[in-house]
């Protein structure tokens, strides 16, 4: 008689506790009251998709609110911060050269509603936030802290300017210009200057 044995070891390929905030529908709430602040401490590389991991956070903001978001890497993670609208269309990509951190400063939400912040590694900036897995594999992984402040903004009621005599000019950089001095930007309806 021949004797034999079989030992099996099952192992997953994730680096830490399974977390599932990789899409818009599974995003973790961060700020949901129109304005407010929130903090998230998490890791890239700890999700069920390993090096395709990204973490998404839901914001529900008021019309005219201003976003300031600061993403700090705790070590070697070369982090990127993306802002998406409710359909997953990218509005902002923050991926500065020379640093592992990223910031979105003074972003004004013209429309109130649901938006998402996505944290990923710098090699994974083209992932689809509605599809998992998607994007490119991360080169670095690690922990991060995301601090978010959504503050009330200035909301003016819309106004229409009507004029028979309107001066509008454009500078070579695409800004409006008016008046005779350099650096004056705006429009002049009926002789009244509105400078931007």
Describe this structure in words.
By secondary structure, the protein is mostly beta strands. The protein is 0% helix and 42% strand. The protein has strands at residues 28-34, 36-44, 55-61, 66-74, 79-84, 90-94, 102-108, 113-121, 142-151, 166-170, 176-177, 186-189, 194-195. The strands form three sheets. Strands 1-3-8-5-6 form a five-stranded mixed β-sheet, with no helix packed on it. A hairpin with a 5-residue loop joins strand 5 (79-84) and strand 6. The chain is elongated, with a radius of gyration of 23 Å.
- Figure out the total of helices: 0
What's the Cα radius of gyration? 23 Å
Structural class: mainly beta
Low-confidence segments, given as residue ranges, are none
State the distance separating the first and last CA atoms.
Answer: 92 Å
- Number of separate strands: 13
Largest beta-sheet characterization: 5 strands, mixed
Strand coverage percent: 35-45%
Shape: elongated
**Percentage of residues assigned to helices:** under 10%
Whole-number average pLDDT? Answer: 82
- What strand order characterises the main sheet? 1-3-8-5-6
Helix and strand element order: EEEEEEEEEEEEE
């Amino acid at each position: 008689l021949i004797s034999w044995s079989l030992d099996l070891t099952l192992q997953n390929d994730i680096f830490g506790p399974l977390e599932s905030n990789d899409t818009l529908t599974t995003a973790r709430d961060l700020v949901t009251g129109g304005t407010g602040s929130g903090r998230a401490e998490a890791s890239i590389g700890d999700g069920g998709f390993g090096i395709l991991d990204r973490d998404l956070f839901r914001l529900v903001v008021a019309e005219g609110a201003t976003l300031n978001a600061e993403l700090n890497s705790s070590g070697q993670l070369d982090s990127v911060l993306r802002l998406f609208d409710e359909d997953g269309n990218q509005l902002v990509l923050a991926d500065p050269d020379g640093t592992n951190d990223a910031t979105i400063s003074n972003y004004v939400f013209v429309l109130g509603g649901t938006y998402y912040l996505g944290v990923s590694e710098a090699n994974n900036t083209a992932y689809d936030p509605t599809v998992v897995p998607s994007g490119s594999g991360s080169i670095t992984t690690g922990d991060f802290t995301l601090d978010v402040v959504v503050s009330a903004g200035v909301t003016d009621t819309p106004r229409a300017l009507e004029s028979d005599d309107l001066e509008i000019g454009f500078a070579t950089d695409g800004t409006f210009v008016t008046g005779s001095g350099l650096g004056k930007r705006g429009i002049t309806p009926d002789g009244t200057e509105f400078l931007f």
